[in-house]
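PROTEIN DESIGN WORKSHEET
SECTION A - STRUCTURE
LENGTH: 81
TOKENS:
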């Protein structure tokens, strides 16, 4: 499964994921690895981009991930640095 979503507090999100504290979609579907992310300075633009990516089919999402992460390694620790 490739989950697309927006977060506004990356340190909190990393902590919650690493400590299995979430009871949301990501936990129910065992989404436990961050393989791609983008940053935005404006919430409106981030929401627009999220909606755009959600419209992609699975293959297009895979190609997007592989532009920065061809091995699909977990980038969660990189997100908080």
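SECTION B - SEQUENCE
RESIDUE ASSIGNMENT:
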């Amino acid at each position: 499964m490739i989950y697309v979503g927006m977060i506004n507090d990356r340190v909190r999100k990393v902590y919650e994921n690493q400590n299995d504290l979430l009871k949301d979609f990501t936990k129910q579907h065992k989404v436990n690895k961050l393989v791609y992310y983008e940053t935005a300075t404006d919430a409106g633009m981030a929401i627009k981009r999220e909606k755009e990516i959600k419209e992609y089919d699975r293959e297009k999402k895979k190609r997007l991930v592989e532009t920065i992460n061809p091995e699909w390694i977990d980038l969660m620790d990189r997100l908080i640095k």
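SECTION C - NOTES
The chain has five helices and no strands.
The chain has one domain: 10-79.
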